[in-house]
Amino acid sequence: SYLTVIAGLVVGFLVYKNQYLSLKKWYRQDLNYIDSLLPYYLKTLEVLIHHYTVPVALAKSIDDAPEVFKPGLKKLVQRIEEGDSSIDPYMDFANDYPVRDSMRMMRLLYRLSLGRQERKQEQLLAFSRTISNLQQKARETKYKNRLDKMEGKTMSMLITTGLGVMVLLIFAVILLMGI
After folding, report:
1. Which of 42, 64, 99, 113 has the fewest CB atoms nearer than 10 Å to its CB?
2. Tens digits of per-residue pLDDT, 34-78?
3. For residues 11 and 134, what is the distance between their CA atoms, to the nearest angstrom?
């Protein structure tokens, strides 16, 4: 009776935790996906900013943006077109996509949209350097994840091989002892 209750509680807890852990894993994968796309999207946006103002560049970039960013970009552009010249639309976009350096990049974009023409070039250079650093970080993260995955596979192969050899040795010793 007590054993059944305890077993039921353990099974219920495990089912609850499994759902929570799978949701947490999906959220992390989604954030990693967004984190890997953001630097490349910002690079295309940088090219557009060289020729257009920031709000126009944002509007023109929607069609070429990754699907993940399109709803947030449409909302951002809509709020800017409605006359919201504060930093809030940019920060809301960064909050919708809470990945590494998104807040900083949106602040840079906002400052770039306010900037005077004579300072635009140096702000663009700073923006460009920051994006290049983000792309480098994204590449490093990608290679690190790939290396960690391969390291894990190698370790599992080594452990499996070691255990197999141990079982064979024990089996051979048992056979020799029995004779």
Report:
1. 64
2. 888 888 888 888 888 888 888 899 999 988 888 988 999 999 999
3. 44
Name which of 138, 136, 107 is nearest 37 in CA terms. Answer: 138
Question: pLDDT tens-digit profile of 80-119?
Answer: 889 888 889 999 998 888 887 888 888 888 888 887 666 7
CA–CA separation, 76 vs 58, rounded Å?
Answer: 8
Cβ neighbours of residue 108 under 8 Å, at least 6 residues apart? 123, 126, 127, 130
Contacts of 111 (CB under 8 A, 6+ apart): 123
Nearest to 113 by CA among 41, 178, 28, 53: 53
Q: Which two tokens stand for residue 143?
A: 């290679």
Specify the amino acid at residue 56. Answer: V
Q: What is the pLDDT of residues 70-87, one digit of tens each?
A: 999 999 999 988 988 888
144 CB burial (10 A radius; 0-12, 13-18, 19+): exposed
